[in-house]
Amino acid sequence: MAQPTDRKYSRTHEWAMLAGDVVTVGITQFAQEQLGDVVFVELPAAGGAVEAGKACGTIESVKAVSEILSPVTGEVVEANAALEGRPELVNQDPFGEGWLVRVKVGTGALDHLMDAAAYEAFLAEEGH
Amino acid sequence: MTHHELLRTPLFDCHVEAKARIVPFAGFEMPVQYVGVMEEHKAVRTAVGMFDVSHMGEIDVVGRRALEFVQYVTCNDASKLVPGRAQYSGLMTRRGTFVDDLLVHKFDDEHYLLAVNAANKDKDYAYLCAQTEEFTHVEVNDRSADYAQIAVQGPKALQVLQRLTPVTLGDIKYYRFVEGKVDGEPAIIARTGYTGEDGFEIYLDPTAASGLWRTLLEVGKGEGIMPCGLGCRDTLRFEAGMPLYGNEIDDTTTPFEAGLGWIVKLEKGAFLGRDALLRQEAEGVGRKLIGFAVTGRGIARHGYPIWYGGENVGVVTSGSHAPTLGKALGMGYLPVELATVGTQIEVEIRGQMVAAEVVEMPFYRRAR
Alpha-carbon distance B317 to B305, whole Å? Predict the structure, then answer.
């Protein structure tokens, strides 16, 4: 599967896309396929702090609960309110309308993350 | 248990071909979903789905004292069965708790077939064998390897399956079974299921299973038949308020506590657990299984604590988003004084108290 090249990726299958000093965060196509039908998303409130590699919310599919690990450190400026009524957007459009949070970050916040090619290679390595 | 020790059903290759997600379950490698739990769930509620349930256990009880034996180990009244009838029942401990829940099928007075949970099959078989020591003229045989089982479930199950059998399926009433050919192969066709929908469970020779599986997919195409995994099997039975062994019932719960008093026939004579159940009937139960709706935000899951008035009063036995009803529901045990519809409770969801309300069960009942 082709990964969008306009963003970066974590080893736990979140993506982060920078615009100005705000990063939009979501989960990848691969992650949503693994989760199955998403029925509930719990996100941090605006103003809250998130830390790279730490849980910042949960996604629940019909059968399972999964933590969302923030790919970046910063302050939440917006959570995707659309997911409250339509959590299935995470399945239908994980790289677009199914985004999770927007986070205000400092410089170099994405440096530790993989680019699309590296993430693709990582998925292949993991046997997917 | 390590991965290579897992068993496979005769339909394993079909599941792999269909790109099912395979998980270990009850010692088997089983499909948990094909395209997705929601879509599969919906297929069963609105059209027809098919499940590989070959992992389930089948145990024969045969011999002159077969009926007497079944009466002794189970709590329901097997003497009420006539040949070709099935009965939901409990395999009981002396404490009146569940070794397992099961379906008792009567072929004749000297032959009963017990359909038991996969995860409990070895335990059940050992338990039954131990009980035969007090009986002559009865034999218990584990026939699980001799049967594959395919469940065809949903409002269009009859219509689809009818194309493959000369048996008039409409004549098989609910909880009855016949022996007949399906797709040219000898089978037991039972009008039973674990979904809350109409449907059939077909027991057949393992070598014939993949042929029937493929044929069903083909002849059910027009009705939108879908292969369905264990994921939606669970959400379907959950909405229909059917207990799952290991969740709602186990060897610490009695049928009375689980709302299954209707399968206890105390007047039928001696049986394992009868004394304990007589006592409980006289004294009343201390706790009861209830259904609840989460009114706050979140989904209750198995094992989450239930709170009332600042006290931990119970535990969630099953909890899920209910696909047909579109909301988060759960089942759990509550002290009997709180086990009434309308009681406002809280479920502790990962450290947070979330409001919930006791509601009627089952959550879903099909229109007949």
Answer: 10
